[in-house]
């Protein structure tokens, strides 16, 4: 992509529009169309995107928002950022995605919204979750930071809930060369509120009038130009991730268990996550072989010190707690070759604890 990215830089430099401008407007239109949604608002990062959605929905002090315990802390940070309380619930044992039954059991008189996290690139069960949120009159928000291009029953991530938050952190499926984020929604009025709040609460009619107290969270022109280049190749990059994950599934030893894919889902495999019983031994073998690995995530959110309140102990959530001890992320990239996948799996197969030969 080097030549295309160089061209994007020169276009931005020539325009002199480094915050907002034509590249941002063009990317917003292109990404909204890609997500099969009416509106896209570029913002500073994915965490801001989620917080701005909640703020635009009127979520605030005294409210509770249901979120999965198995997610990156940014999901809960956004809830706390608007003054609300995150209500952590357990996840499905096979997919580690938000469990609709657990969501319904957690709903109380202060619950106003549910954040469905499309973890590791697979969309949560939005059909079942929507039945719950519709029954109780709650907002269903998508945290799609790891799911650019994923589908569920044919519908794109970002096109189902009242709004979706995306991150363009460099390691994402659609990543910038720095931070960036977006809010995608079919609600024109909500998009307008997000855009206003992200631009210092500025009036649509007079840039010197600030009608609400907002913030500075704007996607810059250079990152938008980069994202326009990378968006054109996103489907091909996602297809390469899908192929790599299929190769993993065929070659992994029995003690290295990949997460399940729901029948109606078309995930984009942001991460190649497996569960193992002896993670310390497994990661030591990978490290000794010069193979990178990650943990997403070894401490569930309800056990993070930042979210413990009033000295109360964390609530046990059996699936999330067990997964935190067992999850392991293997190398995943659109550039990952079949030979590299085979090498990773060969090292894993050499670990006796995973059912391979000593």
Give me a quick take on this structure.
This protein is an alpha/beta fold and 358 residues long. The N and C termini lie far apart (43 Å). It is built from 12 helices and 13 strands.
Can you tell me about this structure?
Helix 3 packs parallel to helix 4. The chain has twelve helices and 13 strands. 48% of the residues are buried. Helix 6 links the parallel strand 4 and strand 5 (139-143). A seven-stranded mixed beta sheet has the order 1-9-8-5-4-2-3, with helices on both faces. The model has no long low-confidence stretch (mean pLDDT 96). It is an alpha/beta fold and 358 residues long.
Secondary structural class? alpha/beta
Question: What is the topology, as strand order, of the major beta sheet?
Answer: 1-9-8-5-4-2-3
* Helix/strand order: HHEHEHEHEHEEEEEHHHEEEHHEH
- Flag low-confidence runs: none
Instruction: State mean pLDDT (0 to 100 scale).
Output: 96
Q: Could you estimate the helical fraction of the residues in percent?
A: 25-40%
Question: Descriptors for this entry?
Answer:
358 residues, globular, alpha/beta, 12 helices, single chain, 3-stranded antiparallel beta sheet, 7-stranded mixed beta sheet
Helix/strand layout:
Layout: H1 2-15, H2 22-34, E1 39-43, H3 46-56, E2 64-68, H4 74-81, E3 85-89, H5 100-106, E4 111-117, H6 126-136, E5 139-143, E6 151-152, E7 155-156, E8 163-167, E9 181-185, H7 188-198, H8 221-232, H9 234-251, E10 257-258, E11 265-266, E12 272-275, H10 279-288, H11 318-326, E13 327-330, H12 338-349
Parallel strand pairs: 2-3, 2-4, 4-5, 5-8
Antiparallel strand pairs: 1-9, 6-7, 6-11, 8-9, 10-12, 12-13
